[in-house]
Amino acid sequence: MDTRLLLFFLGMDLLLICTPGPDLLYVTARSLGQGRRTGLTAVAGICCGYAVHTVLAAAGLAAALRAVPAALPAMRYAGAAYLVFLAVRTLMSLRSRTGPAPGSPPAEPAGRVLRQSMLTALLNPKGLLLYLSLMPQFIAPGTGLPLGVQLTALGLLHVVNCGLLYGLAAVATARASRALAGTPKAAGRISAVSGTMLLVVAAATLSTH
């Protein structure tokens, strides 16, 4: 691949990932409300979702979605509705909680978190727009590499970047959460903030064009 284009894509991709958006807010909410392990599991789920996007884009789905403009808004609304569901469930759980131990956020099965996070990434319009609009700009037809191979390489680079940056965000947020959750009351407030942040993610998802 063209090295100059690849480096340019790397810089653009890192900038986009670092810009506050649905994925970063989602990871922050998970880490804040449920700790480092859940946060890192959420990161793994997001990376799996974008790996699926990479495979589908290389197979030509990106062109199909571009040809059917109504598909993207439909996925955006579905993703927002799913995030609202997760937020409401998180907030409702506060009513039935008898008081967690200080500094011990409620655990959730890793498999469930992985599936939820993967679905969130699959329905994230910001990620879809990356594959639909940005990545094709960095494909060089004259290099001799098939377009699908180039798109796969760019997609996998995006997955690695997401894993590294979102992983750092998950660890940092979890540490801050442990420092703040000194009492059961404080832990409950953190969980409430986590649920509210998921609602913010849903709103951010709807505002993505």
Total number of strands: 0
| Low-pLDDT regions | 97-104
Task: Provide the helix percentage.
Answer: over 70%
Please tell me the overall pLDDT.
Answer: 76
- How many whole angstroms does the radius of gyration measure? 18 Å
Q: Helical segment tally?
A: 8
Query: Tell me, what's the shape?
Result: globular
Biggest sheet record: none
Provide the structure class.
Answer: mainly alpha
Distance between the termini: 30 Å
Estimate nothing, just give the exact number of structural domains. 1
Report strand %: under 5%
What string, H for helix and E for strand, traces the elements in order? HHHHHHHH
Please explain how this structure is put together.
Helix content is 79%, strand content 0%. By secondary structure, it is mainly alpha-helical. The protein is globular, with a radius of gyration of 18 Å. Mean pLDDT is 76; it is low at 97-104.
Compose a concise summary of this entry.
The protein has 209 residues and is mainly α. The chain has helices spanning 3-18, 22-58, 61-67, 71-96, 110-122, 125-134, 147-180, 184-206.
Topology:
Elements: H1 3-18, H2 22-58, H3 61-67, H4 71-96, H5 110-122, H6 125-134, H7 147-180, H8 184-206
